[in-house]
Amino acid sequence: MNFIFQFVQIEAIISSVLDVYPRLRTHKRWITLGTCFAMFLLSISCTTHGGMYLLQLMDWYSAAISVILVCIVEVVAVSWIYGVRNYVRDIEFMIGRSIERYWVVSWKIVTPLVLTFIFFTTIVYNTEVTYNGVRYPRWAIILGWASCFASMICIPGYAIYELARTRGTITERVRKSLTANDWGPADILQRTLWKSHVEISYQM
To answer: What is the pTM of this model?
Structure first.
């Protein structure tokens, strides 16, 4: 199970890089190798005698809070910005059958509310990190919160960057930034079939 989780995390990083820089898709093998090697170097510190304390610090603050915020942004982006109807249409194209309405309600309402509740309760009831009964020094706690905010600030930071580099009024900038420029399967045949599926879906 841990291997599967690591595979998903690495693939998420690689997919993000290749989506932003499509010209690198022909070098995916080297991008994968470089990513894995960079992660290897960064994780060496966790294998030292004090590595468990460092791992506990990152897990306590970064993994427990920022990951939940990322999940909230993802589900809101898919269900409310891209649109749950479009998302359902794409899934039905991939699996070849209709999906239950339960998933629509879950993606659009239940999951965002539950994740938001967990996010705020995690912050409110968060206690100072400890390991084996050892309390961390104040500078370590500050470092933990800094690592947490460093990952979360990327979301509004990039949004501001996109709005600043886009021309037009603020409304036009927001609308343009929330519009997918290139969507659908990369394979030419699958993309043609997907477009036909989209046209049929809009006619229904």
So the answer is: 0.74
